[in-house]
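Sequence design from tokenized structure. All designs in this work follow the same two-part layout: the structure record, then the generated sequence. An example of the structure record is given first.
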């Protein structure tokens, strides 16, 4: 077990199976020393635990937890490409899309779910630049979607 997966276990978390693509794309691809993930929905065992807009059907706190689930799914996608999460040099960029009610403006707080999880699991390697973007709707009516750019070593 990698040190990253040991840290996940210490936090009571397990790396899920890679979420199968919903269309014509790969969950993650490597280009040189970087792995780019596709947008990861907060799928748990093949389904979304919640649907709807943040600030309406889904609370900000629920969405923050879903963002952490997205981050776990993205880590699984990265592992599917590199085999060992200990090869992560750093998380370079995180982009989060938050399906928002018209008056919801706390997208950065929602994305903290993913950012905080990365910090807990990867320490300084998990510190990243990011964008938190409010959108009208996401695939399957998901409340949150998260993607990563990760630098890796050989």
């Amino acid at each position: 077990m990698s040190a990253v997966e040991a840290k996940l276990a210490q936090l009571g978390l397990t790396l899920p199976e890679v979420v199968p693509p919903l269309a014509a794309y790969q969950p993650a691809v490597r280009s040189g020393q970087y792995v780019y993930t596709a947008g990861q929905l907060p799928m748990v065992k093949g389904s979304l635990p919640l649907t709807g807009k943040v600030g309406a059907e889904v609370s900000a706190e629920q969405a923050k937890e879903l963002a952490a689930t997205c981050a776990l799914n993205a880590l699984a996608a990265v592992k599917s490409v590199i085999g060992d999460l200990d090869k992560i040099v750093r998380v370079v960029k995180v982009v989060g899309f938050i399906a928002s009610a018209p008056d919801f403006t706390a997208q950065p707080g929602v994305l903290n779910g993913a950012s905080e999880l990365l910090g807990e699991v990867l320490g300084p390697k998990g510190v990243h630049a990011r964008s938190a973007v409010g959108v009208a709707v996401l695939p399957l009516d998901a409340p949150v979607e998260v993607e990563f750019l990760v630098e890796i070593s050989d």
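Residues 60-82 form the longest helix (23 residues). We note this feature because it recurs in several other targets discussed in the main text.
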